[in-house]
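DATA SHEET
Item: assembly model
Revision: 1
Owner: S.N.
Input lines:
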Amino acid sequence: MWAYVSTLSVPKDGATAEECEDAAVVVPEIPSDEPTDGPVSVAVADGASESLLARPWARLLVDSTVEAVRAKPEVLHSEAGFARVVLGAVDDWDVWLADYVAERERDDRPIKWYEQPGLERGAYATLLAFHLTDVGLWHAAALGDSCLFQVRADSLLRAFPVETAVALGTSPALLNSRNRDDGLIASNAGVAGGDYEEGDQFFLGTDALAHWFLTEVEQDDCPWEVLRDLSAAGSVEDFAKWVAVERAGGRMKNDDVTLVHVDLG
Amino acid sequence: MAYSAEISRVNPTCFVFLVDQSASMNDPIGGDTPQRKADVVADAINRLLTELSVKCAKEEGVRDYFHVAVIGYGASVGSAYAGVLAGRDLVPLSEVADNPARVEERVKKVPDGAGGLVETTTRFPVWMDPVANAGTPMGRALQYAESLVSKWLVDHPGCFPPIVLNLTDGEATDGDPDAAAAGIRAHASADGAALLFNLHVSAGTADPVTFPDTETNLPDAYAKTLFGMSSVLPTDMRSYAATQGFSVSDATRGFVYNADIASIVQFLDIGTRATDLR
C-alpha cells in the first residue's frame, strides 16, 4: 500500500514559529510528494501553554515515542504498552533537563525564581501515536486531546480519542515529564485500531484543528476535503493563510495548529 | 459570549490591586492566628504577583499577558510598589517579575510524606511592604483605579475586561464607596464590563467566607457593603472555581472574607492548563 504523508504546522497568532508548542514526527521521513510503501509511524504532541518547557517536552515525547513504536509496534496495542513508552520519555527528559539547567548556568542565565515552581512541577503535553502496518491494519494510542480521524468513502469512519467537538475543553489529560506512575498513565490513556483500504485518509491533528474538524462534521460538512487539498499542495504558507481565515471567522481557536495527513489514496 | 476574549501578549489585560494602608490596618484579623491586617494584605499582594508571574512564566521570561498596578490608599493614594518600580502605575508583568524590591527566604511547613510536616525554605519575592497610617480614602482609591481602567480600555478595547481587586478592612473614611465601585464596573471592553473583586480582612471572629453568592451569612455591614460592590464571577471563572472544589452558583461574587484570594489568579484562562492526571 502506497502512502503519501505530509505535515503542516502553524503557531498561534501572536507567537513565533520558535514558540510553537506542538510537535509532530513521521517515520520514514520522506517528502510529501513522494510515496512510501512500508509501515508509517507518526506521533503528535501538544505542549500545554501554562507549563514551562512545553515545547522541548512535546518534541522529546514524539521522538522517543516514534523510536519505540518503530522498534516494537505492539506497544500501541495496549494502554500498558503505551505507558511504558511514556516512561522511557520521562527517563530521557531527566537527562535533557539536567543538560538544560547546566546550559543556562553556563550562559549566565540561571533559573529565575518564577521558573522554579514550573520546573519542579514538570512540563505537560498531550500525546497521540499512530502506526500503519504493511498488512492492512493500523493502531493508535493517545492521552489527551490530540486526535486521529479516519475517513473512508467520503465519510468519517473513526475519531479517536475524542469523538465530539464539545468534549474538547481547555483542561485535557496531559502527560507530565515527572510522572512515573505507569498505572495512572495507562488508566488515562486509550488505544484504538482497525483496518485500512486503498483510498482511506488519516488525519492527525492537535486540539484546535480537531475541534474545527469535529464541528464541521457535526454540521454535515466534509472537513477532509479542504485538508486534503492543503496537504496535497504542501505549502505551509497556504495552510497558515487558511488557518488565519478560520480563526478570523471564529471557527478555529487561536492555538498552535498541527496536521499530519496520511493519504492512501 | 462575554468574558471569553483571549488573554495574550497581543491582547493583554490589566490587573489593578488596591491596598488599604490606613491606620486600622494595624489591628489584627480575627481567627486562630491573629496577624496584623497590613501584613495579611501585603502578603496577599506579594503572593498574587508571584502567582501571576509563575502562571505566565516561560523559559524565555514572563510573558506580558497582564499589566499590573498596585495602588495603596491611606495617607495618600498612589503606587505602592517598592524598589525600582516605585511610583509606577500599570507595569508589564515581565517587568514586575524581574523587579521585586527583594527576594526573602521564608520557612514553610510541607508534608513529609509520612503524615507529618517538615520545614523547608522558599523564595518569597516582595514588591510591597506593609503600611498602616491615616484614614481610609477607599472612594478616592476606587476612582484612581477607574481612571487606570478607563485609560487602559482606550488602548485595549477588545481585551478581557480589566480586573480590580480591592484588599481592605472595609472601613472607608471618605464616604460610601458604592458609587465609585459602580464607576469601575461601568467601564467595559467589547468582551464585558470591568470586574471588581474584594478581599475583606476583618478583626471579626466569624468563619472565613470564600466566593459567597449571598450576603445573608456575612458577619457585618462592612462585609455586606464589600460583597455588594463585588462583581459576579463570569461563567468560565465560576466553572473553573467549581472544578477546584469551590461551591458556586450563578450569583457567586468575587469576594472573600478573612480567606485566601490568590486562587483567583488560577481562574483566568491563558491557554491549556497544566493539570495532573487523576
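QC remark: Helices of chain A lie at 54-71, 79-106, 116-121, 182-188, 207-218, 223-233, 236-248.
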